[in-house]
Structure to design on (200 residues):
């Protein structure tokens, strides 16, 4: 079999495993899923998840990294495309981007719930990831650099972003936000943020 065909098959198998893992981790949590069940769901041999990712923790970390990478690229794209825009316009675009991402990735919303649950101060599961927190810190740093300040409208950028993430994410976690409500959710959170920084 040609090398290119083998590589294409390997890439497809890896991709299928990641999709299956994301779906199963989101539904049952990492503790409730085995590598064998992921292989079965992906339609690959039982040994392939171990071959590609070593163990369940490695697979879970890759799933989280993949989701975080997609969101990071989207957020970075917003800030790059908004060069020269007023800071409040950038904020509103970031809110739109984040809500669009959450609405399009319900399994990632569930993964974040599982990860938060197992990433507590008293007890931290072996598979719990710090990647979501790191992504938040990176976004805060990028935005602060973009506006040239750590404060906007008298509000610390870090506090603003922690609140912003909470307002965007919580409705999706609780099933209170639907695709039909995305535009309204964007307007509502945008209004609150602008009021908080004295721009409304």
């Amino acid at each position: 079999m040609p090398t290119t065909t083998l590589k294409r098959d390997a890439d497809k198998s890896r991709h299928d495993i990641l999709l299956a893992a994301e779906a199963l981790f989101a539904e049952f949590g990492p503790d409730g899923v085995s590598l064998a069940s992921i292989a079965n769901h992906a339609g690959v041999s039982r040994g392939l998840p171990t071959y590609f990712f070593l163990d369940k923790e490695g697979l879970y970390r890759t799933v989280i990294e993949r989701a975080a990478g997609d969101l990071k690229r989207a957020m970075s794209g917003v800030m790059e495309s908004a060069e020269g825009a007023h800071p409040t316009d950038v904020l509103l675009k970031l809110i739109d981007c984040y809500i669009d991402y959450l609405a399009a990735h319900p399994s990632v919303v569930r993964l974040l719930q599982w990860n938060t649950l197992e990433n507590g101060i008293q007890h931290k599961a072996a598979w719990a990831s710090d990647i979501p927190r790191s992504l938040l810190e990176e976004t805060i740093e990028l935005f602060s650099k973009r506006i040239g300040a750590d404060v906007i409208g008298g509000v610390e950028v870090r506090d603003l972003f922690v609140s912003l993430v909470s307002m965007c994410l919580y409705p999706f976690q609780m099933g209170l936000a639907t695709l039909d409500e995305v535009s309204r959710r964007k307007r509502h959170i945008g209004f609150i943020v602008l009021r908080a920084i004295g721009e409304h």
Remarks:
- The first strand starts at residue 151 and ends at 152.
- The first helix runs from residue 3 to 28.
